[in-house]
Specification:
Elements lengths: L2 H8 L12 H7 L14 E4 L3 E4 L3 E2 L14 H13 L4 E3 L8 H9 L8 E6 L1 E3 L6 E5 L3 H15 L4 E6 L8 H13 L3 E7 L3 H10 L4 E5 L11 H8 L2 E5 L31 H21 L3 H12 L12 H8 L8 H11 L11 H4 L12
Parallel strand pairs: 3-4, 4-5, 5-8, 8-9, 9-10, 10-11
Antiparallel strand pairs: 1-2, 6-7
């Protein structure tokens, strides 16, 4: 039973219903996947010059609260994290903003027994009160604040270093030279090993690279949103920077979990993204129909095809699909085994390029912080 079969069975997208979790059905589906490490073929890739990670990572963003605002079972989240490691995944993605703080705690608890065998990446940059966890307006990448944030991260993650530290969004008030200079200090102290930028402007990347090599850029990138292809991915190739796509399954859209009858639960961020509005969704579902066709042809799932496509773009692209369902973890971890010939990928891409996605990918309040160029230092 694949993910689409599960959705059909439970009637998840029936007219007039909200998109809700389906734990029991997902657990039942795990029996159809190989779950041992030796049977799961996850190769290794490099981010930047030297950071080796699994070709597919695990995003843990929703492990404290799902898109539907439900609270997952903490023990089951630990089980998923450990099963990911058992199946060859070595890259785990978190952020101080997820929770806030709680996701880093969950990840730290989950990886404690194998911490030294994995790569943890986490992110700073939103303006969050470090004592209370209260979200404050805007961003904060002031040097003193970064240092305080990192100390909190180390405690929550139960570790002595952060393998890959991202600036979550470029702060329009702080020169990137000041940010990278602070990170260099943390690298010299051994508290950070590598750093990256998320959703940065291209000029900012070049300025950051001039101060200290950037290991990776983390942007949204998937079959649903291909914006990085224009500037950022070519820039990564030029400068030798790895690329980590967040939301590689289009916040569930590319798995077939959303259809024309889906209503989003109150608080679900997808409900305020215009690409999922009623007027745009019908058009955008052409992409899902295409994926379903190819999934049937290759005897896999739409989500696996979507991840395989990302892996085929560049050898230094490492997607980090997130999940709170064991069945989905096991499904995603098998995506690397999906093989299309060069001619098949050519046919796939030709069909893909005929589909035009309508609507914006994020709420305006978040989207305004993408592709921002950091201010210049005052002379």
């Amino acid at each position: 039973m694949n993910r689409r079969d599960i959705l059909k069975t439970v009637g998840l997208a029936a007219a007039g219903t909200a998109l809700l979790p389906f734990d029991s059905f997902a657990k039942a589906a795990t029996q159809n996947f190989n779950t041992t490490n030796k049977d799961t073929l996850i190769s290794r890739r490099k981010l930047g010059k030297s950071l080796e990670v699994s070709a597919i990572g695990l995003g843990v963003q929703n492990m404290s609260r799902t898109y539907q605002t439900t609270i997952p079972n903490r023990t089951e989240m630990h089980n998923i994290i450990r099963k990911a490691f058992d199946n060859g995944i070595t890259l785990f993605d978190a952020a101080e903003a997820y929770g806030p703080f709680e996701v880093e705690k969950i990840l730290g608890e989950g990886v404690a027994s194998f911490r030294h065998e994995i790569v943890i990446e986490t992110k700073f940059g939103w303006n969050i009160d470090q004592s209370t966890g209260k979200r404050l307006p805007g961003l904060n990448s002031k040097p003193d604040h970064i240092k305080i944030v990192v100390e909190g991260m180390l405690k929550r993650l139960r570790t002595d270093r952060i393998d890959l530290l991202f600036q979550h969004r470029v702060d329009p008030e702080v020169p990137i030279e000041d940010v990278v200079g602070t990170i260099k200090d943390l690298i010299n102290e051994g508290k950070v090993l590598h750093y990256g930028l998320s959703e940065p402007g291209a000029k900012t990347v070049r300025r950051a690279q001039a101060i200290h090599p950037v290991t990776a850029i983390q942007n949204e990138y998937s079959l649903l949103w291909r914006g990085p292809e224009e500037t950022i991915i070519p820039l990564c190739e030029e400068l030798g920077i790895g690329f980590v796509p967040w939301s590689p399954l289009g916040v569930g859209f590319l798995t077939g979990a959303i259809d024309a009858n889906t209503n989003f639960a109150s608080g679900d961020i997808r409900g305020v993204e215009s690409r999922f509005s009623k007027e745009n969704l019908l058009n955008n579902l052409a992409l899902v129909e295409m994926l379903k066709k190819w999934a049937i042809k290759k005897n896999v799932t739409p989500g696996q095809i979507s991840l395989a496509w990302l892996l085929a773009q560049k050898p230094w692209i490492v997607p980090i699909p997130g999940t709170t369902q064991m069945a989905h973890l096991l499904e995603n971890s098998k995506a690397e085994t999906v093989k299309l010939s060069a001619d098949e990928w050519k046919e796939f891409n030709k069909e893909l390029n005929t589909i035009k996605i309508s609507g914006e990918r994020l709420p305006a309040a978040v989207l305004q912080y993408s592709n921002v160029e950091a201010p210049l230092q005052k002379k």
